[in-house]
Amino acid sequence: MTATARETVLRRVRDALALSDHPEVEVPRAYRTGRSLPDEERLALFTDRLVDYRARVHTGPSDRTAALIAEVLQEHGAQRVGVPTGLDPAWLTAFDGEVLTDSPDIPAPALDALDGVVTSSAVSCAETGTIFLDGGAADQGRRALTLVPDLHVCVVDLSSVEAGVPEAVARLRPTRPLTLISGPSATSDIELERVEGVHGPRTLEVVIRTDA
């Protein structure tokens, strides 16, 4: 007699419960750690990965941060941008548009009216071209702020870029809400055609401060 789906599921549950009496198997987690690269190699690798993901990269010393951000915003015609509460105000001194400081009182749909958002970042991984945002940090803001606007200008200090994933993750606090960014938001779910801006910003501009 053919077993019903319910009987199959129940049998698997009973089998799993029977296995629970066995001692746990220790899983080795000897991840490779301690990898490092010189600044120039780390910057080159990180930039290569970002560009491969269709992000745009701008590099310069920390005293050029405001100018680079203003140039990027001007290029995109941004007039109204959002920033998290703890972002360094000096970074927007060269921008002549309206700056809106985010607040939990601002509903997420209202963020769509912004032309873009400017944030800092927590850590980045050169090997994967991934930028980590810490939602608990005042200069990075809540997750909605970086997901709803169509343009994200993210400032990255070269000193916060690690060579590999284990090294980057080790610098994060797992109890905080983390957002991992690897290029602009994109999907190829429909007939394998790439569509950008579905789950987050369509455009990612990364400003790397080479002396910070």
Automatic annotation (TrEMBL):
<dbReference type="InterPro" id="IPR037171">
    <property type="entry name" value="NagB/RpiA_transferase-like"/>
</dbReference>
<protein>
    <recommendedName>
        <fullName>LUD domain-containing protein</fullName>
    </recommendedName>
</protein>
<feature type="domain" description="LUD">
    <location>
        <begin position="115"/>
        <end position="208"/>
    </location>
</feature>
<dbReference type="InterPro" id="IPR024185">
    <property type="entry name" value="FTHF_cligase-like_sf"/>
</dbReference>
<dbReference type="Pfam" id="PF02589">
    <property type="entry name" value="LUD_dom"/>
</dbReference>
<dbReference type="InterPro" id="IPR003741">
    <property type="entry name" value="LUD_dom"/>
</dbReference>
